Amino acid sequence: MPTYIVTCKPDASADQIAAAKKHAEDQGGKIGHEYNLIKGFSVEFPKDSISTMESHEHVKAVELDQEVKTQ
């Protein structure tokens, strides 16, 4: 399953972030890392199910986790 980075809205409370994580798990996702610098987390999701996270009220963005290179 692909891994995605879920970024919550900047004003999301700890309870709202927990609700977003629970929503991800309820939709078949598996939480990976929880981030401190941003309000977010990584989640493994079946590719056809990720749209449910994008529409969650406390989620700002969902991106495919990829390798980043600098030049």
Structural write-up:
The chain has 71 residues and is an alpha+beta fold. The model has no long low-confidence stretch (mean pLDDT 89). The longest helix is centred in the N-terminal third of the chain and has 13 residues, at 14-26. It has a single domain (3-64), classed as Alpha-Beta Plaits (2-Layer Sandwich). It has a four-stranded antiparallel sheet, covered by helices on one side. It starts with a strand and ends in a 7-residue tail after the last strand. The protein has two helices and four strands; from the N terminus they run βαββαβ. The chain is globular. It has helices at residues 14-26, 51-54, and strands at 3-8, 30-35, 40-44, 59-64. InterPro entries: PBI_I9, S8pro/Inhibitor_I9, S8pro/Inhibitor_I9_sf. This is Inhibitor I9 domain-containing protein. Residues 3-71 form the Inhibitor I9 domain. Belongs to the protease inhibitor I9 family.
Q: What's the total count of β strands?
A: 4
Task: Provide the succession of SSEs.
Answer: EHEEHE
- The global form is globular
* Average predicted local confidence, pLDDT: 89
Q: Within the CATH hierarchy, at the fold level, what is the topology?
A: Alpha-Beta Plaits
Estimate percent helicity: 10-25%
Q: Can you list the strand order of the major beta sheet? A: 2-3-1-4
CATH architecture: 2-Layer Sandwich
CATH superfamily: Peptidase S8 propeptide/proteinase inhibitor I9
Total number of helical segments? 2
Quick synopsis:
With 71 residues, the protein is of the alpha+beta class. It has a single domain (3-64), classed as Alpha-Beta Plaits. The protein has helices at 14-26, 51-54; strands spanning 3-8, 30-35, 40-44, 59-64.
